[in-house]
Design goal:
This protein is of the alpha+beta class and 127 residues long. The protein has one domain. Helices cover 39% and strands 30% of the residues. It is built from 3 helices and 5 strands, in the order αβββββαα. The protein has a 5-stranded antiparallel sheet with strand order 1-2-3-4-5, covered by helices on one side.
């Protein structure tokens, strides 16, 4: 797969991101140029970056693997998932991870709310 094909695959699956496929290192052997590719996609609102995703594609011994990483505001940190055989699976695994975390945090927030005194809950509802 060429870098152009990789970018088209990313744009087809995640058209909301603006994708940049990175150039290989100048020290990369010519026959290995398309064996490893990395792309960064971002969603911005004005000059503010809302979401950043990095997708790495490796093709070693005819085994293609995708790794999707994501971070919210900015570029550092974020979550990543284990390698998957397809881009769609890697992105879906990352989405599942975030949905699981959202459910977990919602449950924890509800536990705290129910543990609070009734008087505080009534005041909160009034606001």
């Amino acid at each position: 797969m060429t870098r152009k094909e990789f970018r088209e695959e990313l744009k087809k699956l995640l058209p909301g991101y603006k994708w940049t496929v990175h150039q290989p290192s100048p020290f990369t052997k010519k026959e290995e140029i398309n064996d490893w590719m990395e792309a960064t996609g971002s969603i911005s609102s004005g000059s503010n970056r809302i979401s950043t995703m990095v997708v790495t594609r490796s093709d070693k011994d005819n085994r293609v693997k995708y790794i999707a990483q994501s971070s919210g505001f900015g570029f550092r940190g974020g979550e990543s998932v284990l390698p998957e055989k397809t881009l769609a699976r890697a992105v879906r695994a990352l989405q599942d991870l975030y949905e699981h975390k959202a459910n977990l945090y919602h449950t924890l927030a509800m536990d705290i709310q129910y543990a609070r005194p009734e008087k505080v809950q009534k005041l909160r509802r009034a606001l």
